[in-house]
Amino acid sequence: MTADWITTPLTAAHLRGALELERTAHGLLPHRLPARARAQNDDPQLALAESQPSGVRLALRTRATAVELDVLATKRVYRGAPPRPHGVYELLVDGRPAGSATADDGNTVTIDLATGASDIRPGPVRTLRFTGLPEGDKDVEIWLPHNEHTELVALRTDAPVEPAPDRGRPVWLHHGSSISHGSDADGPTTTWPALAARLAGVELVNLGFGGSALLDPFTARAIRDTPADLITLKIGINIVNLDLMRRRAFSPAVHGFLDTVREGHPTTPLTVVSPLYCPMHEDTPGPGAFDFAALAEGRLNFRATGDPAEVAAGKLTLAVIREELSRIVTERSADDPHLRYLDGRELYGEDDHAELPLPDGLHPDGATHRRIGTRFADVLHRTLPQGVAKTGGPAA
Question: What angle, 0 to 180 degrees and rounded to 10, lies between the N-to-C axes of helices 247-264 and 217-224?
Fold first, then answer.
């Protein structure tokens, strides 16, 4: 390491997209739910998901031409499943892709899918290096892996850095499932919410939680208390594939979630998005499950295990969810003119599935994330508050 490196202590002012930072033994851990919400959760899946920094990025202003970031990543290994790719750290300079890196080691959590048992092996801190940045003052962003728990240990540069200034872009807060979290996207800037945000010129706060968009009251309160100019809520797929509730409980839970959000955002444009097209759960209730026959062949696949005959008794499918969400938004919008409904099949429908099928039966691949993100950018443009400039952004 050269003597010319400058070490800058990281603070919340250097990060965007996180609701809170936790100081650990190694550095800073970004959280996408605040401590109060985390204290009310005992589900390890949500604890894992909210600590994976989807949409979280370092946002700096600097003349530096070289940047080093020390990180401690936590890798997940599933026994019997194909190995997961390393999380990707993506560099943007003045909004344009300028490099990427991975931490090839770190803590490792090994999970047995059959029993749910897990064990952890501690690992080392790794240094990510980005060089050859252009001369002169510039905005530099480092987007953290959307799918890998990451502790930020140290930032070094060859010129002073300061937090990037507020460019006046509207803040878009989105909540959804693993698809919104970014499952199977190519990288953190091409999850569909990240891509849509860049194309629409908005600042993203991504509260997409893998397996955990479950109408939890503490999530609604976190949204209520977070400043935002636009809010979108993608509801349904996790409730079906966990077989979490029946129709009788679902509709009041949606109303309660919306009521809480509206306590903090009474007139903010709010769009409720129903599930994307997903054949396994269109007319078949949950729960969803791993396809262990596929795992035995080294493939990851999901299947629905519910009985369609039980829909009449109140079990939920994606078709039922869409019907209920459309009805709820139609009724509420009579008194809430800033509330809208979007059928998720407008983003990814049956024709899209024929062209770009879901590889594991549940999650879109990189190409599909790009299609959804491009379409959703148009939704954001249509719902930007009046008088707010649409700055646009480079295509991925």
Answer: 20
Relative orientation angle of helices 192-200 and 366-383, to the nearest 10 degrees? 40
Residues 6+ apart with CB under 8 A from 388: 170, 229
Whole-angstrom distance, CA of residue 347 vs CA of residue 262? 25
217, two tokens: 């009251």
How much helix, strand and coil, in percent to the nearest 5, is found in the chain? 30, 30, 45
Selection from 215, 197, 216 nearest residue 206 by Cα: 197
| DSSP 8-state secondary structure symbol assigned to residue 262 | H
Locate 105 and state its tokens. Answer: 């080691």
Distance, in Å, from the CA atom of 172 to the CA atom of 55, rounded to the nearest integer, reads: 11
The phi, psi pair for 219, rounded to 5°, reads: -70, -40
Residue 165: pLDDT band with limits 50, 70, 90: very high
| Distance in angstroms (rounded) separating the CA atoms of residues 57 and 30 | 10
* CA pair distance 222, 32, nearest whole angstrom: 9
Q: Residue 165 CB: number of other CB atoms within 10 A?
A: 9
Determine the average pLDDT of the residues in 43-50. Answer: 94
Above 50 in pLDDT, residue 393? no
Amino acid sitting at position 256: G
pLDDT digit string, tens, across residues 91-105: 999 999 999 999 999
Contact between 315 and 285 under an 8 Å Cβ cutoff? The reply is: yes
Q: Return all residues near 237 (Cβ < 8 A) that are at least 6 apart.
A: 177, 179, 213, 275, 276, 278, 281, 318, 362
Q: Which pLDDT band, with edges at 50, 70 and 90, does 140 fall under? A: very high
Q: Which helix (H) or strand (E) holds 198?
A: helix 192-200
Query: What is the Cα Rg of the chain in Å?
Result: 21
Burial call 130-150: b when 16+ CB within 10 Å, e when fewer: beebeeeebebbbbbbbbbbb
147's enclosing H/E stretch is none
What are residue 163's DSSP bridge partners?
60
Pair of tokens at residue 176: 């959804």
CA 209/CA 214 separation, integer angstroms:
9
Kindly give the pairing relationship between strand 66-79 and strand 126-131.
Answer: antiparallel
Is this model's pTM higher than 0.85 or not? yes
Q: Are 172 and 201 in contact (CB under 8 A)?
A: no
